[in-house]
Every structure is written in C-alpha cells, then in structure tokens.
Amino acid sequence: MAQSKNQFYLRRLHSLLGVIPLGAFLLVHLMVNHQATQGVEAFNKAAHFMESLPFLYALEIIMIYIPILYHAVYGVHIAFTASQNIGHYSYMRNWLFLLQRASGLLTFVFIMIHLWQTRIQKFFGQEVNFDMVHQIVSNPAWLIFYIVCIIAVVFHFSNGLWSFLVTWGFLQSPKSQRVFTWISLIVFVIVSYIGVSAILAFV
User: Which Gene3D superfamilies match (predicted)?
Assistant: First the structure.
C-alpha cells in the first residue's frame, strides 16, 4: 500500500515537472530559436538576452537541469515497466501511450546531445549564437536528426499535457479526455511548425 502511494505521488511529480517548468522552458526555447527566421541579428539578440538573465546558472540548475534529471530518470523507469492501458482507453490512446514512451526515450538522448553541442561547449569558450547552431545543422545528417528529435520532443510535451490533466484529475470523463486528445494534437502541429521552421532558419 505504501509503495502504491509513493508511486502515485512520484507519477504526479513526474507529470507536473513535464509541464511546469520543462514544458514552459520548451516553449520559451523554441520561441527564442524562432527568432532565427527574422535573421541572424534577431536570434543573437534574443539569445544574448537569455544569457544575460540574472542568476542564470542557478535558474538553469533549479528550473531546468534538476527537473530534467528527475523527469528523465523516472520517465525511463515508466517506459520500461509500464504496460499499455488496454481496456481502459481507446485504441488511438493506447498508440499515443506507446509513442509517448518512445518519444520520451528519444527526447532523453536528444537533450544529452544538444547540451553537449551547445551548453557544454560554452565552457570551452564557444559563444552560443547563430553561427554555433548553423555549424551543427549545416551537416545534413545533423539537420535531419534535429528535425526528427524536435518533432519527438514536441509530441512528448503535447501528448504529455493530456497525461498531466488526467493524472491531476482535470480530465475525468471519457468525453473530456477524447476532446483534449484532439486539442493536444493541434498543439503538437502548431508547436512542431514553430520548432521545425526555426531549425531550418539556421541552415
């Protein structure tokens, strides 16, 4: 009983962190990247503003890295131990549940690579700017990898909104769950467009 109760709270925390702060950070990050569609200077200005925020490293550790670490580790645990909810949800929802786990694993790999290519390189004296991203995605293989992973990350977030609202009791009726499934897919399409158009602007 105690273990079930702990799992209940751990899942709630996992779901919450996926939306706040990580989901919010994802949207801000994509909007900053989308400034690249307005040109080199527009992106560099937006990136410089984010880099100049007070207490940046403390904010990143508390609001991004620690939540990512917990969400990723517990998410991997869920991915390898959870079973599909056959009989509880629709056929479509079960496929989305499977894709949620797969996109979560890909998101975890992508974040590690992306951090190495951007944030960690900053410690070696390389400035985070338009040219840094351009050098990465000018390689067609990396460009394809980034596009696929951005779509996976956005799907994980958008579909995760549904899970968050169900887990926290906001979507209780089957009808509300069906309606929000389509709302989350609309969010996925819109945010994916923002993310993919942003990365293509760096080419």
Answer: Fumarate reductase/succinate dehydrogenase, transmembrane subunit (1.20.1300.10)
